[in-house]
């Protein structure tokens, strides 16, 4: 460990505080209620750690992830990377922090330029941040080796690769600038099971070698459990439960987390009676229920849930936003 | 399930389907057989390109030919070979005796017709109902699949429905004529787990109440484990293993089946034990342009011997209802090292 990492050992690599993203809507010529895609999200991420972010489609997990990199501009909140608030930096000063945080996208085809050769795709971030002719080509070749792509793949175009190889290419590109943090937005959900295992193993190996931090956004709870150290569960733009992976999966406290976990089909015995079926769909984030947003689908909801929104609370690392977490556990 | 072994309602017999492509013939389905018995749910699992969807589409003769060619085999519905049936006969069967639900409900529903009109159309065409009776029945179907406020919802368009509700509407449409066979091609792949649980619950209930036999095509072994009675595992256009669901998960035998199970992260192994490295299946699915000389899986298989690259393994019974196409099946079951 060098001096820099020692100095920040106490502070997390990334601290997100009260991140908000509201999208304006229109009703005719008047402003409608904003869509609250992310509504006050806070979490920390340590060096070398993976935080899994799970929830149903439309819960705001991808919005939260993209807002971190300012691919979507946040409405409010702080994004502290090693003590610097990225949310407030002007664009020209923010640019150098882009090196520190990279992204791997869900669709490995749509996120690669079909008219660029694989070698150029991986070299592009290097060129953007000062290409060095003496060192550049070797760096690209090294990246190809690291993600398990053959060297002759550099001359190929994206369509010549299989889905799993394209995702490897996306990972090589994300690694090019030696980032500290990689945001993975559903990186394996478009892949077949056997290929998914290859990519997950690759991500884990790279983390061990390079001390990377991952924010791993996914809807597949088994994958998230496998790769994450800590997990945050989102519902309608808020984190409803966050904690170490073993606590969340073995002792879920929020009714939504329990419902999510019980809905996962499992290989190998589980009585069907244990399943907790949620009724209905996710409410609209433009018009969320009053109080606790989950109360319309919650089997434990009481009058109080409609009146006050529960805050994340709890002692230690495992925190939950539910008025009755202690009673229903 | 079917101890008495009644006659299968649907039987796929040595089906071979090829596609003409600019650089050769692709053997998408290469000699696949299975039977579906009344009231059961049969799972067909495999990865992209293994031929599972092509098999499903061929039952309703939905594959456009050319490029699709039925090289050989038969698909028998109640004894009648559908590959010989006229187009008029197929139109009688589709959506009536055999119906299908697809992965993406948005692209399979008509966006310019209301949900009610789409369901009523099927009922008027196949069951000869009048417009008013068909409309009433459409609302009943929406109620049956658990869509709240069906009287209002029949008058709405697909874009006004959420993803889970669209899939329910498509199930209502598929079941409107009480089909004997329902083919569900990845019905929950596009849906969230909570909605997936609702839809699988619904399919299971409808199967019990209406006696519909279901072919469930999926890549998700978890869904298969929870819902199906029997499973067919496909790889590169071949059936590599078939068994009752409990048997398959208790004694997976084909190296590909074992590979799939090992590659799946699960929710049961304790986290405290540390990260388990997922088993990888090295390499990729082979090109289906060449005729098979040996086992299609041999190049990726840890158990492969010289013989595996020369001989195409035949499907051999291992136990009652459990068949495997692997030369080394017995060795593997006896615990031979990879």
TrEMBL record, chain A:
A GO biological process held by the record: peptide transport
Signal sequence extent: none
GO MF annotations in UniProt: ATP binding; ATP hydrolysis activity
SMART domains attached to this UniProt entry: AAA
Occurrences of domain ABC transporter (ranges): 14-261
Family classification: Belongs to the ABC transporter superfamily.
Record key words, sorted: ATP-binding, Cell membrane, Membrane, Nucleotide-binding, Transport
CDD domains the record matches: ABC_NikE_OppD_transporters
Native organism: Pseudothauera rhizosphaerae
Identification of the protein by name: Dipeptide ABC transporter ATP-binding protein
InterPro entries xref list: AAA+_ATPase, ABC_transp_ATP-bind, ABC_transporter-like_ATP-bd, ABC_transporter-like_CS, Oligopep_ABC_C, P-loop_NTPase
UniProtKB/TrEMBL annotation, chain B:
Keywords tagged on the record: ATP-binding, Cell membrane, Membrane, Nucleotide-binding, Transport
Location in the cell: Cell inner membrane
Transmembrane helix in keyword set: no
Membrane topology of this protein: Peripheral membrane protein
GO term, biological process aspect, one: transmembrane transport
Record-linked SMART domains: AAA
GO molecular-function term, one example from the UniProt record: ATP hydrolysis activity
CDD domains recorded: ABC_NikE_OppD_transporters (cd03257)
Organism superkingdom: Bacteria
Family statement: Belongs to the ABC transporter superfamily.
NCBIfam families: oligo_HPY
Protein name: ABC transporter ATP-binding protein
Organism from which the protein derives: Pseudothauera rhizosphaerae
Lineage, uppermost ranks: Bacteria, Pseudomonadati, Pseudomonadota, Betaproteobacteria, Rhodocyclales
């Amino acid at each position: 460990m060098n001096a820099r990492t020692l100095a920040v050992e106490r502070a997390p690599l990334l601290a997100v505080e009260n991140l908000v993203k509201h999208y304006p809507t229109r009703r005719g010529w008047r402003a409608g209620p904003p869509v609250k895609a992310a509504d006050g999200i806070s979490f920390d991420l340590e060096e070398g750690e993976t935080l899994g972010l799970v929830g149903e489609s439309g819960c705001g997990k991808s919005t939260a992830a993209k807002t971190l990199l300012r691919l979507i501009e946040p409405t409010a909140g702080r994004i502290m990377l090693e003590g610097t608030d990225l949310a407030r930096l002007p664009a020209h000063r923010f640019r150098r922090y882009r090196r520190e945080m990279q992204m791997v996208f869900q669709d490995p085809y749509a996120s690669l330029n079909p008219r660029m050769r694989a070698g150029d795709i991986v070299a592009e971030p290097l060129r953007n941040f000062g290409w060095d002719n003496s060192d550049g080509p070797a760096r690209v070749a090294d990246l190809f080796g690291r993600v398990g792509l053959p060297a002759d793949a550099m001359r190929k175009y994206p369509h010549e690769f299989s889905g799993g190889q394209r995702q490897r290419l996306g990972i090589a590109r994300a690694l090019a600038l030696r980032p500290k943090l990689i945001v993975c937005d559903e990186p394996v959900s478009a892949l077949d099971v056997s290929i998914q295992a290859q990519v997950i193993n690759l991500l884990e190996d790279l983390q061990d070698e390079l001390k990377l931090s991952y924010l791993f956004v996914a809807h597949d709870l088994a994958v998230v459990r496998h790769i994450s150290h800590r997990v945050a569960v989102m519902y309608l733009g808020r984190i409803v439960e966050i904690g170490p992976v073993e606590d969340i999966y073995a002792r879920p406290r929020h009714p939504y987390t329990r419902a999510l976990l019980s809905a996962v089909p499992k290989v190998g015995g589980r009585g069907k009676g244990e399943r907790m079926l949620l009724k209905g769909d996710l409410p609209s984030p433009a018009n969320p229920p009053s109080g606790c947003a989950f109360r319309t689908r919650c089997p434990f909801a009481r009058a109080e849930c409609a009146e006050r929104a529960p805050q994340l609370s709890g002692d230690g690392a495992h925190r939950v936003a539910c008025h009755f977490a202690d009673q229903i556990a | 399930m079917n101890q008495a072994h009644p006659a299968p309602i649907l039987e796929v017999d040595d089906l071979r389907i090829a596609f003409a492509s600019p650089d050769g013939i692709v053997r998408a389905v290469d000699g696949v057989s299975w039977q579906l018995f009344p009231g059961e749910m049969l799972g067909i699992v495999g990865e992209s390109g293994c031929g599972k969807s092509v098999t499903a589409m061929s039952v309703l003769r939905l594959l456009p030919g050319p490029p699709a060619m039925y090289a050989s085999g038969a698909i028998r519905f109640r004894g009648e070979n559908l590959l010989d049936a006229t187009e008029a006969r197929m139109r009688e069967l589709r959506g009536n005796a055999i119906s299908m639900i697809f992965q993406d409900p948005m692209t399979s529903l008509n966006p310019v017709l209301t949900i009610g009109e789409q369901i009523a159309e099927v009922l008027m065409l196949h069951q000869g109902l009048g417009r008013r009776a068909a409309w009433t029945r459409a609302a009943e179907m929406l109620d049956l699949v658990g869509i709240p406020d069906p009287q209002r919802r029949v008058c709405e368009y697909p874009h006004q429905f959420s993803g889970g509700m669209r899939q329910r509407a498509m199930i209502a449409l598929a079941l409107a004529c009480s089909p004997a066979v329902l083919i569900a091609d990845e019905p929950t792949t596009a849906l969230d787990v909570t909605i997936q649980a609702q839809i699988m619950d619904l399919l299971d209930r409808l199967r019990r109440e209406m006696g519909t036999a279901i072919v469930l095509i999926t890549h998700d072994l978890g869904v298969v484990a929870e819902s199906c009675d029997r499973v067919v595992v496909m790889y590169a256009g071949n059936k590599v293993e078939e068994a009752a669901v409990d048997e398959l998960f208790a004694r997976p035998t084909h190296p590909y089946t074992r590979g799939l199970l090992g590659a799946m992260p699960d929710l049961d192994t304790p986290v405290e034990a540390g990260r388990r490295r997922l088993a990888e299946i090295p390499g990729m699915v082979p090109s289906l342009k060449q005729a098979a000389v040996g086992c299609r899986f041999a190049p990726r298989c840890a158990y492969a011997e010289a013989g595996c690259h020369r001989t195409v393994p035949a499907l051999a019974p291992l136990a009652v209802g459990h068949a495997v196409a692997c030369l080394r099946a017995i060795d593997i079951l006896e615990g031979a090292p990879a």
